[in-house]
Input
Amino acid sequence: PSASSSSSPSPTSSAGSVTAQDIIPTLAQAQSDEDKAPAEFNEPSIKASSLRALAPLSYAQEFAAVNDEDELCLIAWANSGDGDGTATLNGPEVECEDPSEVKDEGLKLSIDSTKDKPGVVLAMLPPDITEDAARTELLKIPGNHEDLRPPVEFKATDFGVVSVAMEPATAEELGSITFPRKDGTKFTLDLD
Output
């Protein structure tokens, strides 16, 4: 409750406005142990108490947060995916957008790989794209699967926000992926 007292009293009153909490409902709850960053994270514009873990992916450790302009942010570290506890992290990278934009377009960020560090193209899909819809589309990609570290990985949070992750080379190869929305329209995730 104390977090809301510091925000400016305008966007919440307008009808039809979207808040970060509308998309990431866990922002309304206290931070849990899972919501702690995997490495030192000190981005002055991000409200540290707003960091919330999203679905665990082999390609990335991802979090949602709110910045001091009440934008919804996607924060991620690329992960080399070594399942033995020695994974290399690269990041963090932060991408923020007005929640109404995120509702329509999702949020995407890229972390470039280097010789020693992993890269990732990560997207938090718009909240009206279901895990089943994402699965159906992503399993149409030749060679994609749901085992460990597929070419295009996806996971949903308990509250239904779906994330998609892949290596930069895979993103470049695919160019874009189109998903059906609940209202019958299509959403195209541009990967370049």
Q: What stands out?
A: Helices lie at 2-5, 20-23, 99-105, 131-138, 168-174. The beta strands are 52-53, 60-66, 72-79, 89-97, 107-111, 120-124, 152-156, 162-166, 176-180, 186-190. Residues 1-15 have pLDDT under 50 and may be disordered. DSSP finds five helices and ten strands in the chain.
